[in-house]
Structures are given as structure tokens and as C-alpha cells.
Design goal:
hpI Integrase, Chain A; disordered C terminus; three-stranded antiparallel beta sheet; 9% strand; 3 domains
Length: 454
């Protein structure tokens, strides 16, 4: 085949010996979509030239009566020899009945599968490296909108690393009971690790550890419901009989004030230097509220117009509504609250008004030492229920005021006690308590300006 001169026009219908100069001269005539420069040495190889000046290698052949076209890249990035080599390879495949498109598809699928496998392995490795502390932080953030402040504080404190300077006194804080698990992989939490942890915690703080085990159980249940954690928790390790046995069963507490102890108790509590502490401790006895509930009472929760207190409570409590319940603001309780200075948001606040009263159990211990009685903060709540038996108050009324769950179907579905009905029984109870304590009190006088004397 004669080599054309550099200035000769190109016959695009004929095959040519491909040279650098030939390809440089190749151009698409006006009005034509493209032209093909065919290679006379390699069957099926041609250079596609477009009006825009693009020059692209392609290979064409027929296989089982169907046209197969494959792109081989752009010239001059892909040289003539490289394009010819690729074309010959494709030609050999098609003559053997191998479809290049299927080969490319299989190669692409293999690459995609390998890439997906690498990505999945990386994700799995990251999941398997996930620590309990990391998952616990995600758990708290996910559940925060559904928890009250005290329950949130319990969960945060359980995993607290400790080592922080104490806000009161010297030294540093102790790690929370569950802080042991924070650096462990979630995958490594087993029944055996829970048992070993329980054996250690039982030596120093079994009560807090029992609460920790309960909270950890809820955490692991949450993990099983989350796709990103479910495969890392093959079984709920917190549901472990050996761990529960190691921590022991909680002993039912029975501390409560007796009727004859009321005079000494009132006198001792009223003698405390802190008016907020005194009102708070008497309030626990007179309302039967949980210590944390009354401690978090805010001024906005005190309704003096309708004589009501809004207690921030559990949703499931009798009379509860959006995590609160209303109880009567009885005359003496109204007097105690009205006598307090209004500083900050909390009724029973610290001396700076920045937070609720702190460590009320210490103030109670001081009063108990003076009165010669032994009762805890929760024991004052227990005293409310126990002392109400003297007046034979309806059990459902007492339970609703204290925020207990209904204990029967009739109580749950067929007893609706409005605030004024509760007040009838509650004021009767308060008046009896004051009578037994020897406190003279005029319920009709203006709150906050009364002086109660023994």
C-alpha cells in the first residue's frame, strides 16, 4: 500500500497505513457528523474524527450477526501502536466467540464487588471497634428528649469517668459504677464480664451497682433495636443471674416516723438554720413527694390562685400529664413556701439562688440527731403513706397524691379524682399531723405572715 504524501487529501472510504502525519491531517468535513480513518493493518480499528476536532479510537466487528463497537480512548493520549494492540486483543476474543462487553461487565462487577467488600469490611471493623462509652453517649443523646432531669443525671453519672475536683471538700470524684465498661468494645460485653464487674462493685457500692445494672440493661435493649449496634450485642449481658446474685437483693426499707415522734421531729427541723432546708424536709412529710421531685419544685409550679403544686413526675403516675401531676397546696405547706425568700427559679434553692438545695440528707441527719429519730429522705415520703392510715384515708387518694401507679383496674379506669376532692383529704391529713406535732396554726391567716408555735 502506497504511503500518501503529507499534502494529499484523505480518502475516508479506503483503509490506510496509520501514521502520525495522517492522523494529524484528518479532519471532519463541514456538514458531516463524523468521519472514520480506517486502519489497513488492523482489521476493525478506526479513528473517529468529529467536527469539533476530537479524535477517538474505536474497534468495530460483528459477532453472531450483531455489531459490536468498543471505545479505545482518545488520540494522541492512546498511541497508534497501543490502539492496534487493543484492537488485536479484541479481535482475538471475538473470533473465539467471547463477547468483550461481557468480559468488561464481569470485570466491572468484580471491581464493584471487591470495593463493596472492602467498604463493608471497613465499616464492620469500625463497628467492632466501637466502645461502650461511645455507644452510651449516642444512647443518652437519643433518649434525652424522653427523660426527666433526674433520670438523665443518673445515666450520665453512671458512666462518669471520675477524677474531677470535688465541688465540695477536697479530693477528686469517684468513677461511676459503669465507668469500668466505657473503654471496652461493645462486642466484648458478655455475661462473664458483667459477673466480674458485679463481684467487684458488690464490695463497695452494691446499691448503686444494682441501679447501674438496671440502666445497663435498658441500654443494651436499646442497642438491639438499632441496626448499627444490633449485631454487636448477641445477647443482653445485663440479664445475668450471676451478676444479680453477686449484687444481692435490695432490702426493703422500713424507716418512717411514728406518730409520737412528730413533736420532736418538727421542733428539730424548725430549728435548722436554713429556712429552705426546714421547709423542704417538712414538705416531704406533708406532701409525700419523692425527694427529687420536691427538690426540683420551681416557683412557676406553685399556683396560689387555685392552691395547687405541679410536681414534675413520671408519665405513668396516677393523674400524671406530660410528666407532671398536680397535688393540693395545703394551708401549712402554703405558709412554708410563702415564708421563703424568692431567689432564682427553685422554691427550695441554695443560698445563692442558682440551684436547688444541695445535700438535704445532711440537714435531715442533723435534725434526726437532735430529735433522736432515724429516718431518711425517702422515709419521710414513706411516713406520709404510713401516717395516713391513722385517718383511714382512701388508699387511692394517698396513691394519687404520692404519684403511685394505679393498683387495680377500677382505680385505673373508673376513678377520676379532681384536685378539690384530693384537697378535702389532704388538708384533713395536714391538720392531723400538725395536731400530733403540737404545732398551733391558723389555716385562715395570710400565708407567709404566720408564726407557728409549739
Amino acid at each position: 500500500m502506497a504511503r500518501p504524501s503529507k499534502s494529499a487529501s484523505i480518502d475516508y472510504k479506503a483503509a490506510h497505513t496509520l501514521t502520525q502525519g495522517l492522523l494529524e491531517r484528518a479532519a471532519c468535513p463541514a456538514g458531516v457528523r463524523f468521519v472514520l480513518v480506517k486502519d489497513g493493518d488492523t482489521k476493525g480499528l478506526r479513528l473517529r474524527v468529529t467536527p469539533a476536532g476530537g479524535k477517538f479510537w474505536q474497534f468495530e466487528t460483528r459477532m453472531k450477526g450483531k455489531l459490536i463497537t468498543r471505545s479505545l480512548g482518545e488520540w494522541p493520549a492512546v498511541s497508534i501502536s497501543e490502539a492496534q494492540t487493543q484492537a488485536r486483543t479484541l479481535r482475538n476474543m471475538t473470533t473465539q466467540g467471547i463477547d468483550p462487553r461481557e468480559v468488561e461487565r464481569e470485570a466491572w462487577e468484580k471491581r464493584e464487588a471487591e470495593e463493596a467488600a472492602r467498604a463493608a469490611a471497613a465499616v464492620q471493623a469500625q463497628r467492632e471497634a466501637l466502645t461502650v462509652g461511645q455507644a452510651w453517649a449516642a444512647y443518652i443523646e437519643a433518649r434525652r428528649p424522653f427523660w426527666g432531669a433526674l433520670h438523665l443525671a443518673d445515666n450520665v453519672g453512671m458512666m462518669a469517668p471520675g477524677g474531677e475536683p470535688k465541688k465540695r471538700g477536697k479530693g477528686t470524684t469517684t468513677p461511676g459504677p459503669l465507668a469500668h465498661f466505657a473503654p471496652l468494645r461493645l462486642l466484648d460485653v458478655t455475661g462473664e464480664t458483667m459477673h466480674q464487674w458485679a463481684m467487684e462493685e458488690a464490695r463497695t457500692r452494691p446499691t448503686r451497682a444494682r441501679l447501674g445494672l438496671h440502666l445497663f440493661n435498658a441500654f443494651l435493649n436499646w442497642c438491639t433495636e438499632r441496626p448499627e449496634y444490633a449485631e454487636l450485642v448477641t445477647a443482653n449481658a445485663a440479664k445475668n443471674r450471676r451478676a444479680r446474685e453477686a449484687l444481692g437483693k435490695p432490702q426493703a426499707k422500713k424507716d418512717a416516723l411514728l406518730k409520737e415522734q412528730l413533736p420532736a421531729f418538727f421542733q428539730a427541723v424548725q430549728g435548722l438554720q436554713s429556712a429552705a432546708a426546714s421547709a423542704y424536709l417538712l414538705g416531704l412529710l406533708l406532701t409525700g413527694a419523692r425527694p427529687g421531685e420536691l427538690q426540683m419544685l420551681r416557683w412557676e409550679d406553685v399556683n396560689t390562685q387555685w392552691k395547687a403544686l405541679t410536681i414534675r413526675d413520671k408519665d405513668a403516675s396516677k393523674g400524671g400529664n406530660d410528666g407532671t401531676r398536680q397535688v393540693p397546696l395545703t394551708p401549712y405547706m402554703h405558709h412554708l413556701i410563702a415564708s421563703l425568700p424568692r431567689r432564682g427559679d427553685f422554691v427550695f434553692s441554695n443560698e445563692w439562688g442558682t440551684a436547688p438545695i444541695s445535700r438535704p440528707h445532711r440537714r435531715l441527719a442533723d435534725a434526726c440527731a437532735v430529735a433522736g429519730v432515724n429516718v431518711t429522705l425517702h422515709g419521710l415520703r414513706r411516713s406520709f403513706g404510713s401516717l395516713s392510715e391513722w385517718l383511714e384515708l382512701p388508699a387511692g387518694v394517698v396513691a394519687q397524691i404520692q404519684g403511685h401507679k394505679p393498683s387495680a383496674t377500677a382505680e385505673k379506669h373508673y376513678r377520676v379524682r379532681p384536685l378539690d376532692l384530693l384537697r378535702l383529704h389532704h388538708e384533713k391529713f395536714e391538720a392531723w399531723i400538725l395536731e400530733q406535732a403540737g404545732v398551733q396554726f391558723d389555716a385562715q391567716a395570710e400565708p407567709g405572715k404566720l408564726r407557728a408555735v409549739n
